[in-house]
Amino acid sequence: MQSRVNDYANVISQSDKSQLESLLYSLENSTGIQIAVLTIDSLEGEDLEDYSMKVAETWKIGQKGDDNGAILLVAMEERKVRLEIGYGLEDKLTDTKCGLIIRNVIIPEFRNGNYQAGIVNAINNIVGLVKNDESLVSKKVLSEDTGMDPGGFIFAGI
User: Fold this and answer.
1) Nearest-CA neighbor of 73 among 101, 51, 95?
2) 11: Cβ contacts below 8 Å, ≥ 6 apart
């Protein structure tokens, strides 16, 4: 893993990137859980799920044996976003909760062109869920339970 926040699409300000790095570093130090952010210009024809799995495996996100890592991937050209969650975090970052983060936290901001806010708010929600700190989790994530698999969401025209 290059760093915890890898903004190759240049959508996150340096100050927010530094704050996210600090938050994710603190999470890793206190819990061993590794969360990474990757923004890219394009998937260049690759499948979103395959790409996110390849990155997670290459970067070795999460502790060996615990599989307690996650990655938030944003592909700008394709207008797609995905949360890839290791097996060791699936009890806290369920498909339902990830779907709610994508639909209720990320997508509304992305629709308005606020990519940075969508990413920052998503990471705060993710950290809140894995640390059981409801003060970091949006009410729109805590209160809804749709049972839907988030998969790879396209944020164009939503």
Assistant:
1) 51
2) 39, 74, 76, 115, 116, 119
CB 39 within 8 A of CB 80: no
pTM of the model: 0.87
Based on its alpha-carbon atoms, the radius of gyration of the chain, rounded to whole angstroms, reads: 14
Residue 53 CA to chain centroid, in angstroms? 13
How many angstroms separate the CA atoms of 33 and 13, rounded? 24
Q: Which whole-number Å values give the CA distances from 37 to 19, 85, 142, in the listed order?
A: 13, 12, 22
Q: What six digits make up the tokens of 121?
A: 């708010």
How confident is the model over 110-122, as a mean pLDDT? 96
| CA 85 – CA 140 distance, rounded (Å) | 20
Angle CA(101)–CA(102)–CA(104) in degrees, nearest 5? 65
Reply yes or no on whether the pLDDT at 141 is more than 60.
yes
Structure tokens at 151: 């998969």
Give the mean model confidence (pLDDT) for residues 17-27: 96
**Cα angle vertex 90, ends 10, 11, to 5°?**
5
